[in-house]
Amino acid sequence: SVAIMMLIEDGELGLNDPVVKYLPELASLTVLTEGERLPLVNPITVRHLLTHTAGFSYGWNPRDPVDALYASVNPERAADSNDFLQRLSTLPLKFEPGKQWHYGVAVDVLGVLVERISGKPFNRFLHERLFEPLGMVDTFFNVPATKLDRFLPNHVWDWRNRKLTMFTNANDAEFKRVNFFSGGGGLVSTTADYFRFAEMLRRGGDLEGTRILEAETVALMTRDHLPDIVPLVKNGVGRRAILRRGRGFGLGFDVVVDTANRRGAASIGDYSWSGIAGTFFWIDPVLDVVAIGMIQVLRSPLRLSTEMKNLVHGSLMTDEN
């Protein structure tokens, strides 16, 4: 999302540009309506991708007809960005672009868009325009051999036996021979590196004299861009809605819009996101803090993000009083 906004600041594209202007491979996308694939009424725009209102999915719900197709085509397992677009072009959308909110591969499409517009592989663009300027020395798609001894394994919580099971390690090809540089996931990093990225956002796009984004751009990204009421797709992401009450969505971030309807502590304008294996971050513009949690546990029974936020808020409020 930050990479796309950098290109928008460069004048290379606009938020309301149709995506097919740059990715013609997606020109024949359809929307699944009552079992029938119909042509789109409205084109997918860059803004739709950033706000997860394009109609894409991830294929996590086997009972949903669109998700079942995603599971069979599996665009996330593409060999490269061209293969990703080819796979995605065969899948229907869940809904007409701009009509609903649903978490899906929209950010992966943004990564391909960065490649197409910049003329550089996504990993190189990130290194040259983001990681190197910010001093993020330990962030990669492919972990260098000299740093593999620091790479921690991933785990999954076995609910039946109530124990942790390791299922990835430093020798997995997934982290050493990557060819599809996904905008939606796959980067390996450290707490220190990600703090530099998050701190840049907290400071309005600048870190230690290096400006990545204009302050006005960060403000635009971190406000709610959804209508007051955006219905979730029926059965989308199981029955557990990622977009809960009291939360809107900006240009790449979950944004708190109503603290009264939230579970746990939060400030209006608090923006955040989390990873599938339990990593999370949030930036609170009211308390003026950055918080990051780095764990590697899929299906974790712990609510670490909520508990940490409650403790941070409680501590700061106590100090202020």
Automatic annotation (TrEMBL):
Matching Gene3D superfamilies? DD-peptidase/beta-lactamase superfamily (3.40.710.10)
- Record InterPro entries: Beta-lactam-related, Beta-lactam/transpept-like, Diverse_Enzym_Activities
Q: Name one Pfam family in it.
A: Beta-lactamase
Where does the record place the Beta-lactamase-related domain?
1-297
Alphabetized PANTHER family for the sequence: BETA-LACTAMASE FAMILY PROTEIN (AFU_ORTHOLOGUE AFUA_5G07500), BETA-LACTAMASE-RELATED
Instruction: Name it.
Output: Beta-lactamase-related domain-containing protein
Organism of derivation: marine metagenome
